[in-house]
Amino acid sequence: MKKEFGENVLVVPCIGNHESQPTNQFAPSTIKGDKLNTTWLYDSLARKWDFYLTEDAKTTLKKYGSFTMLIRPGLRVISLNNNYAFKSNWWLVYDPLESKRLMEWLVQELHKAELIGEKVHILAHIPPGVHDLYYTWTREYNRVINRFSKTIAGEFNGHTHSDEFKVFYNEAGAPAAVAWGAGSATAYSDYNCNYKIATFDPNTYEPRNIVNYVYNLTEANLTPNRRPHWFQLYDMKNSFQLDDLSAASMNNLLYRMVTEDLLLLDFYAAFYSKISDRRWPNCNNYCKIDNLCKTVVTVLWHRERCEELRNLFFATISN
């Protein structure tokens, strides 16, 4: 990254579940024994990422695998190692409170940013409300996002390899925040590869638009001597006819997809796998609405809005 983009472009990393060995295992900070703790990983990443991180960021990274940094006056980033809440992290059985300690750290950092008027971008590998996270975490994380929704200008996730987003809702049922999935530049079963370029409002630091670029793996494998043919698949605002990328606009889009503009649901289903010729043609109506349902589930047992969208969709296509 440093070689390609140069030393004047900041790269903000975030730890994923495959970084540890054994995979998915992130020991609590209280585990000090050699060959048991995850200190070896955090120390090595602090050295590898040294060029980009402040001393304070490296200190926190070595403890939790998380850190926060001021990107520019008014904008802070929090890189959150939410693998502590990953159900396949067996250390949860030994000490289920480590994820609580991480959540408390997150709240402290958001509160400090709130007090001095900073906006925050959150980077977290695992998206909110997916079944890889244990249930209680999804509820508490949802509460944190709602509490600091005026401070958090954006959240960005990976892990699933699919192209998706999540809408958070407050206790009154109003849309409060959006978490944006990045997709994946690495290959995954029946998904094409992608990268995204987001542009931000220089005052609010909220996303103005997100453009997705992909290449077709089938085409790449058929032409192994040619460099991959990257092309723009869509841009969020224009392809989905949005005024902006706010939580309210994204919520309106979801309801349009299942009532008055089913073509947009077809778009979303195609873009979900980045128009994979293995997965997309086989995505029937049940597949389409299942994918859309995921966007409104951020607390794993709160599926009422999902069922509402499902019922609206099948009522629309039956008319």
From TrEMBL:
A Gene Ontology molecular function term of the record: acid sphingomyelin phosphodiesterase activity
Matches recorded under PANTHER family: SPHINGOMYELIN PHOSPHODIESTERASE (PTHR10340:SF29)
Superkingdom as given in the UniProt entry: Eukaryota
A GO cellular-component term linked to this record: membrane
Species this protein is from: Euphydryas editha
Pfam families membership: ASMase_C
Protein name: Sphingomyelin phosphodiesterase C-terminal domain-containing protein
Location of the Sphingomyelin phosphodiesterase C-terminal domain: 191-294
Signal sequence range: none
GO biological process: ceramide biosynthetic process; sphingomyelin catabolic process
Keyword field contains Glycoprotein: yes
Keywords tagged on the record: Glycoprotein, Hydrolase
